[in-house]
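Before relying on records like the one below, remember that each one covers exactly one chain. Contacts with other chains, cofactors or solvent are not represented anywhere in the record.
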Amino acid sequence: MNENSSKQPERRDILRAFRRAWNFVLRTPISSLILALLVSALIVMLLGYNPVEIYKYIFIGAFGNWDNIVTTLGQMTPVLFCGLSYLLARMCGLSNMGMEGQYLAGAFAAAVMGIYVPKSMLWLGPVIPLLAAAFWGGLIAFLPAILKRMFGSNEMLVSLMINYALTYLCQYLVNYVFMNPDNIIPVTSPVQEATHLSQLVPGTQLTTGFLIAIAFTVIMWFVLYKTIPGYKIRAVGANTSAAMYKGLRIGRIQMWTYVVAGMIGGIGGGVQVLGVHYYYIHGMTTGYGWDGIAAALLGAGEPFGNIAGSLVYGALRAGSLYLSRMTDVNSDFIYVIEGVMILFIAMPEMMRHFMFKEEPEGKIPKIREVKKVKSTPKSEV
């Protein structure tokens, strides 16, 4: 009897230690990345390939020489925009799963406006198409935002459904309304040359869109951490109940933050059209929205961390091209690795939403402390 009772505390300690270790693995982005790479290596082995050789070719293809580095930076640009879009909404306590749709809307709007922008306004270059991309990206984000504010709808589910609707809507438009008759594949007519983004390195996909993404990163960091509106956004995301008690207008802050996040996603699509493709083609997202989520989470949910996370995904996409040239592995295999990485990197976020119940940390006092202060008589203050 005494032996059993003495073993129970030991078992509790073991379970508690295991739980802490598991929580650490789930909540640490780098640990999630390492775990994802290990599982991906196991999949590679099961398919009959050498994982060390596969990863070596991916690394060389991403960073082996200057041309490969430029390709990596070009590939990470749309991921940067999508990551910033998700990150901004997350800072406000929301989940923006609609980057794919916002990206598509922005890309299509930029393509159409780049075709039909008046000649008298061509001196503005890509400004008008990018403004159109921002407008439509924000408009697409406005729908789940207003539904959440008015009816308490789940913005995650609504934005996911909008993704599917927009995918088929854009497919219909490019096939039957705006299709270029000179092409056998469904694409729009090319945008006017005056609206093109400048190439930072001639003959590559690295354009001034990369600089725009970096500028947006700096601006977002400054607004979030150095301004009062940014403090309000982070306060709402840290503790909604306490922020509401302090008089912040939660619904308005979340709605407009979500709209701005959608505008960033739309600009990402516009940058890709004006700097890389020069027309809209169906399926041009190729999962940039989902990569953006993983990049933002891999960067610990911080604007500058998102650059590092986006670099990882840009390297995977650039490295896959070299991998397919050097081996018999198709470049599409990289999406298997990306899928596993998204699963493990996003797992801490899923656990934060659905399993861990502790009160989020933030600069706003806990709601019970605020009530205690308010109930104190004025004579005692």
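Residues 250-277 form the longest helix (28 residues).
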